[in-house]
Every structure is written in structure tokens, then in C-alpha cells.
Please model this.
Amino acid sequence: MLATSTLASADPALFNPQSGRLDASRIASEIQLPVSTIAEAIGKKAPSVRKHPDASSLQPELRRVYRIWVAIVDLYAGNKKNARIFLNAPNKHLQNQAPVEFIENGDLKPLEAFVEAISERQSA
Model:
């Protein structure tokens, strides 16, 4: 679970205004990744995610991607451009892999742990 301060920075643009649920298409657009990459990250098939990007069945896994993104944006004081650079740059704390590689491979646990550690360090 990520630090509570991460949730205080909720980005309404990532939610479908009609349903109030997270929207995979909006998240993909924000992070500048294809919807198919988000689908892969959450273990779903791209066509169904494209057709119903805010389906209730997607919400638990979309929340994981959302928390990671919001925490990284918070790390960069709201600067989404720098957050995107961070996602794409190799990171020595992640065995010189870029964080986006974990998203592309559907392996969110290392990113969740990394972001949790950063969030805890910032709040200390």
C-alpha cells in the first residue's frame, strides 16, 4: 500500500466523468503509453480494455498503475514531463531497468515497492 499522501494528489483527469471510475485510456494517454501496454500491465486483453476502459473488472489493477503514476508525479512536484522522463530512464535502483519496462511486462510489484520506499523517505 502506498503512502496516504499519494492519494491526496488524485488526478480527476484519469477518471471517467460519467462512471467516476479509473479509465485505462485516460491513464494510457497521460503516461503516453498505448492502451495495449496498460492492458498488458493489468493482465487483460487490449480489445476489451479499449472497448470498456473503465470497466469495474479493471479497477483493482488500474488502481495499481494509478498509484504508481500519481506517486511518481508527486515525486516531481506535479511535473508530468519529468515524471515521464523518469519512467523511461534506466534506474540504478531497479537493476538499471527503466520503470516503464516493468509496466510493459506487467510486473508492477517492483515499481510499487520502489515508489513506496520513495514516498516513505519523502514523508520522513
Q: What stands out?
A: Residues 12-123 form one domain. The CA atoms of residues 43 and 74 lie 26 Å apart. The helical segments are 4-7, 24-31, 35-41, 46-51, 59-75, 80-88, 99-104, 109-123. Confidence is low (pLDDT under 50) at residues 1-8.
